[in-house]
Amino acid sequence: SAYYIIDIYMWYLNTTAGTVTWTLTNSAAPTSQNIDYEETPITGVVAPPGTATMLRGQTVKDATAALTITTGTLTDAVNHFTHIKIWLANGAGTNLKIQATKNVGGTITPLRESFWSARRVAAGNVGTFAA
């Protein structure tokens, strides 16, 4: 039983128009997980100040064993980016699997510098703040 902060950064080439589903599968339902995610616009990576808006979303106090996040219909043959940050409280002996699935034909190809990291956080440093 522990608390973790997990960061997932993925740059990828999308070969065919369609959605991508990110599945975060815990081997058992977590005690709680908060998730903040952001993705490039469906048209792909744009240089600032860019006219397209990043897609964002949050999940709070979730206890779903296999949570999914689905993108909009992504433009084909362009580079995309996704960042998912998870604050996870889980039980003893559980693990988390991170998977991306292309939903309508084609493939997604991870690009260099894509990575994930996990950091364990002390239980006394989670959610207790003084007024």
Shape: globular
User: Describe the biggest sheet?
Assistant: 6 strands, antiparallel
Residue windows where pLDDT falls under 50 for at least 5 positions: none
Tell me what portion of residues adopts beta-strand conformation. over 45%
CA gyration radius, whole angstroms: 16 Å
Judged by helices, strands and strand pairing, the structural class is mainly beta
In N-to-C order, the SSE pattern is EEEEEEEEE
Total number of strands: 9
SSE layout:
Layout: E1 2-14, E2 20-26, E3 32-39, E4 55-62, E5 66-70, E6 78-90, E7 96-102, E8 108-110, E9 115-121
Antiparallel strand pairs: 1-6, 1-8, 1-9, 2-5, 2-7, 3-4, 3-6
Please summarize what this structure is.
The protein has 131 residues and is mainly beta. The chain has strands spanning 2-14, 20-26, 32-39, 55-62, 66-70, 78-90, 96-102, 108-110, 115-121.
